[in-house]
Write a structure and sequence with these properties.
Elements (H helix, E strand, L loop, with lengths): L1 E4 L4 E4 L1 H7 L3 H4 L3 H6 L2 E3 L12 H6 L4 E9 L5 E13 L2 E11 L1 H39 L12 H25 L8 E3 L1 H11 L9 E5 L7 E3 L1 H18 L4 E8 L2 E8 L30 H11 L4 E6 L3 E9 L10
Parallel strand pairs: 8-10
Antiparallel strand pairs: 1-2, 1-6, 3-4, 4-5, 5-6, 7-9, 10-11, 11-13, 12-13
The protein binds adenosine-5'-diphosphate.
Length: 342
């Protein structure tokens, strides 16, 4: 913990905060700019934090900052991850100083990275034999389906494929989760023609899902592309369409339309629906509605929401139990600059 006067000089600091920040007694009476000039401060994704945005500075301007995560590169060459909270000390309206608390998260961060690397390597190692199983099952499918196997019990090749794909999906979800938590989510949106993307995606998805049950409905007034990162858009679509196919047996309809300055994409199914009390929670991590059948980790919708929000979009679901569910998400439209249009 450190206490600052109105000019930002340190008037009190405890040994823990001294150790975390690396500040020496001679730094205490220096100005904030001089003091922080010795330390390079970054956000967790590597953006430099200007001195004026350092939590103690913001607190001296009257802001209360909670748990801001920063990376400090100290003079000693050490890099540490800290969570900082800061608040102004006031009497009436006057700000007399500020107080800041620091927590060293470097070890937690290292453990997170180790977990991410571990998850990555085990899922990678598990994926290789799984790909072999799925590939061979796919090759055997036409041979086995409809063949007279004589004495052999019925081999349900579709069940092998279905279970294998579910396992592949769960591994992919776990890798994504580890990556988000490691702060590694990066989207690079570019203008994307959604109907063309969707048609191409459904063609490619034939091996992984039963696309014969997917219908597409396009609004006639689609004028603009969406601003989307193609790999990420594919994950979003495969999660929502995959769920709709998993939880229902009828036709699934994917619709694309525009509303204001957004492209709206929806995935509708005629499955069991989602109880109203569960609707607000289905996008939470590891949430699965009571009575949900089939395998799953409850991560797909959490990942989908994170990916949609990383594009600046929104996601929500509407559902009537017994009748079906519709998932909607929006993406910003790539509207050309007015000056570019004649
Ligand atoms: P998972 O499908 O792996 O359980 P998700 O995060 O994709 O995880 O979904 C969370 C929960 O939301 C599911 O367990 C299920 O209860 C519910 N759900 C998602 N999509 C649908 C759907 N199309 N119809 C009915 N319930 C759904």
């Amino acid at each position: 913990m450190a206490i600052y006067d109105a000019e930002g000089k340190i008037v009190r600091i405890n040994p823990a905060a001294e150790q975390i920040t690396g500040f020496q007694p001679e730094d205490f009476s220096a100005s904030i700019a001089e003091r922080w000039g010795k330390v390079r401060v970054e956000t967790p994704d590597g953006q430099p934090v200007p001195h004026a945005q350092v939590p103690a500075f913001r607190a001296l301007r009257g802001e209360t900052v909670q748990g801001e995560l920063m990376v400090l590169h100290l003079v000693s060459g050490r890099t540490i991850w800290v969570s900082v909270s800061a608040a102004p000390i006031r009497i009436g309206w006057e700000i007399l100083g500020a107080v800041a608390t620091f927590a060293d998260l470097t070890r937690v961060r290292q453990m997170q990275q180790e977990r991410e690397a571990f998850l990555h390597s085990i899922t990678h190692d598990l994926r290789t034999p799984l790909t072999v199983i799925l590939g061979h099952a796919e090759l055997l499918r036409p041979e086995i389906e409809g063949a007279d196997l004589g004495e052999m019990p019925d081999i349900n090749i579709r069940s092998i494929l279905l279970a294998g794909r579910q396992m592949a999906k769960m591994m992919e979800d776990l890798v994504d989760l580890a990556q988000f938590e490691g702060g590694k989510l990066k989207v690079e949106p570019e203008p994307t023609d959604v109907p063309a993307f969707l048609a191409d995606y459904l063609k490619r998805a034939q091996v992984a899902m039963d696309v014969s049950r997917v219908a597409v409905s396009l609004a006639p007034d689609l004028r603009w592309p969406a601003l989307a990162d193609s790999r990420t858009l594919e994950r979003i679509l495969s999660n929502l369409i995959g769920n709709a196919l998993k939880y229902s047996e009828d036709l699934v309809t994917v619709s694309v339309g525009a509303a204001g300055e957004e492209i709206v994409i929806s995935v509708a199914d005629k499955g069991p629906g989602i109880p109203p009390e569960d609707l607000p929670r289905i996008f939470d991590r590891f949430f699965r509605a009571a009575g949900t059948k089939g395998e799953g980790l409850g991560l797909g919708l959490y990942i989908t929401r994170t990916l949609v929000e990383a594009h600046g979009g929104r996601i929500w679901a509407e559902s009537t139990p017994g009748e079906g569910s519709t998932f909607f998400f929006t993406l910003p439209a790539g509207i050309p600059d007015k000056k570019d249009t004649p």
